[in-house]
Amino acid sequence: MNILVINGPNLNMLGIREPGIYGKEDFSALEAYIRRCAEEMDITVELFQSNHEGAIVDKIQEALGRMDGILINPAAYTHTSVAILDALKAVALPTAEVHLSDISVREEFRRFSYVSLYAGKTIYGKGFLGYREGLSWLCDQLLPE
């Protein structure tokens, strides 16, 4: 099973940017955590991070025919990007959305997610653990019973 894991803008600044909200561990720790989870679940992950909306759209489109599912933390694009939503709908792969912080209790503009209009599962407020939950959910969707 091949899962594309996408992290959006500013996630490369983990540990520096608002550690009270996003935690003190850095981005390399997050990527290592995701790799460990994938290894434990016997799945392959391709990790991608970009601060650019078009690059994220391109990566989603490139997943068609190569990946079995997508785990995405669209970060700030959560609340603004119809383009990312449309790309996810176009490739029609099982998708889980994850957020480190609890977007439901943050600023009003952060409470709506365009990605959630397509994602089969949205996880927020669980820090790194949300990525494990998202990968596990994708495994459940993709593995035959």
Quick description:
By secondary structure, the chain is of the alpha/beta class. It has 5 helices and 5 strands, in the order βααβαβαββα.
Keywords:
single chain, alpha/beta, Rossmann fold, five-stranded parallel sheet, 5 strands, 18% strand
How far the N terminus sits from the C terminus, by CA atoms, comes to: 15 Å
Helix content: 25-40%
- Number of β-strand runs: 5
Counting helices, strands and paired strands, the structural category is alpha/beta
Reading the helices and strands in chain order gives EHHEHEHEEH
Number of domains: 1
**Estimated radius of gyration:** 14 Å
What does it look like?
By secondary structure, the protein is of the alpha/beta class. The protein has one domain (2-142): 3-Layer(aba) Sandwich (Rossmann fold), CATH 3.40.50. The chain is built from five helices and five strands. Strands 2-1-3-4-5 form a five-stranded parallel beta sheet, sandwiched between helices. Helix 2 (27-41) runs parallel beside helix 5 (129-142) and helix 3 packs parallel to helix 4. The longest helix is centred in the N-terminal third of the chain and has 15 residues, at 27-41. The radius of gyration is 14 Å and the shape is globular. The chain starts with a strand and ends with a helix. The model has no long low-confidence stretch (mean pLDDT 93).
